[in-house]
Design brief:
The chain has 14 helices and 8 strands. By secondary structure, it is α/β, with parallel strands linked by helices. Strand 5, helix 6 and strand 6 form a beta-alpha-beta unit. Keywords: Acetylation. It comes from Panthera pardus. One of its GO terms (molecular function) is rRNA (adenine-N6,N6-)-dimethyltransferase activity.
Length: about 400
């Protein structure tokens, strides 16, 4: 099997005969901005009506605009948003960009909230039209079609492939997308891409530590054949951290850095009480820098279902706290490997598609300051040639 071309500093190109301008890990800065299609602009008020943050809104816009351009290039009749959550991306693509969207989410509560937000946005848009008669619609508005369904990573989901009525004369042409689809859900998108109804894919992964091994990684024959290609949990978890954000925190050198030391101390207490309880999820504890280490440990024990009144060895906790600077140094060194690990995971996914004869690219679609997971894996079954360059730019 032919070895892949070297990685470009800003994208990976899978087409042979087009070498990248430099080697190394994937560089995540977006290419730039060009004033192309302005869609979903005037009257788009979801940020106000649905409590969206500016960063979240920018992520949704960047992803939605890329999907719109990819849909136009490949003649798709329907977009399927997998792991859609509260439907922010689906809502922007359908109500803002005029795409036909099926939105699939396994959590019924999130689907019900998404439907409520759809109604609120439609009401807000209607009010905006009444206040500003000069704003004209590009066409009729249709909310996303929401479906409650878990998508298993190892089995094909028939609901995912079913077209919405009415069926186009020449059959459905589906575009699969997932913005920060968690763990194996991103893998499920790739496996469904081989279905004949699917002609395009745009996937932004997330939560690499939740990937199944084997099953979720490695996917490609090439990476599976690499000696030492195994990625233990600790490396995959580290690849999910925001390198840019942490660099700023280091420069500020504020008390918030002690979170790492406190969490390490909590882990020792958990393993002493329940040795079989490994890597329990501890949701964020607010204002850690204002807490004593024993207070943090007690709150953390409660969050993982253990008795917060467990007897604590305060002397041992104080000794852990005295190692705060060393813990920060260790975490910083480990974080330097994050781009390398993410590069291997994304390259594995790209090669998995390439080995099946598909055409694939990795493109940065928004600033990593908005989200560290900003590389989108784009795939088509027909070559797009230089038309891929249209996907590298962000609309105004």
């Amino acid at each position: 099997m032919r070895s892949p071309a070297p990685l470009a500093p800003w994208r990976y190109n899978s087409k042979a005969g087009r070498p990248s301008p430099g080697g190394g890990v994937l560089y995540r800065q977006p290419v730039g901005h060009t004033p192309l299609l302005v869609a979903g602009g005037a009257g788009w008020t979801e940020a106000a009506t649905a409590g969206r943050t500016a960063a979240g809104d920018a992520r949704g816009r960047g992803s939605g605009q890329l999907v719109k351009k990819l849909s136009d290039l490949t003649g798709c009749t329907q977009v399927v948003d997998i792991g859609s959550g509260q439907g922010h991306l689906s809502r922007f693509m359908s109500l803002g960009l005029g795409l036909t969207v099926k939105s699939i989410e396994g959590d019924r509560r999130l689907v019900e909230r998404a439907q409520r937000l759809d109604r609120e946005l439609l009401q807000a848009l209607e009010k905006e039209e009444k206040r500003s008669p000069q704003v004209t619609r590009a066409g009729p508005r249709h909310s996303p079609h929401h479906v409650v369904r878990w998508v298993e990573p190892t089995a094909l989901c028939k609901e995912l492939l079913l077209p919405l009525e009415p069926l186009p004369p020449h059959g459905a042409r589906l575009l699969l997308t997932g913005l920060h689809a968690c763990g194996d859900l991103s893998v499920a998108l790739l496996r469904h891409f081989s279905c004949p109804e699917v002609v395009a894919l745009a996937s932004v992964g997330c939560c690499y530590m939740k990937l199944s091994e084997p099953g979720g990684y490695p996917l490609s024959q090439w990476v599976a054949g690499l000696r030492g290609s195994e990625l233990p949990y600790r490396l995959r978890e580290g690849a999910c951290h925001a390198l840019e954000d942490y660099a700023e925190r280091l420069q500020r050198a504020g008390p918030g850095l002690r979170t790492h030391c406190y969490r390490a101390a909590l882990e020792t207490v958990i393993r002493g009480a329940r040795p079989e309880l490994r890597r329990p999820g501890v949701q964020g504890i607010p204002r850690v820098h204002e807490l004593k280490i024993e207070e943090y440990v007690q709150r953390g024990l409660r969050r993982v279902g253990l008795d917060p009144q467990l007897p604590l060895n305060l002397a041992a906790l104080r000794a852990h706290q005295a190692q705060e600077n060393r813990v920060v140094a260790f975490f910083s060194l480990a974080l330097l490997l994050a781009p390398l690990v993410e590069t291997l995971i994304l390259l594995d996914r790209l090669l998995y598609l390439q080995e099946q004869g598909f055409h694939a690219e990795l493109l940065p679609i928004f600033s990593p300051e908005l989200s560290p997971r900003n590389l989108v894996l784009v795939a088509t079954k027909s070559p797009l040639g230089e038309a891929f360059s249209l996907l590298e730019t962000e609309d105004s």
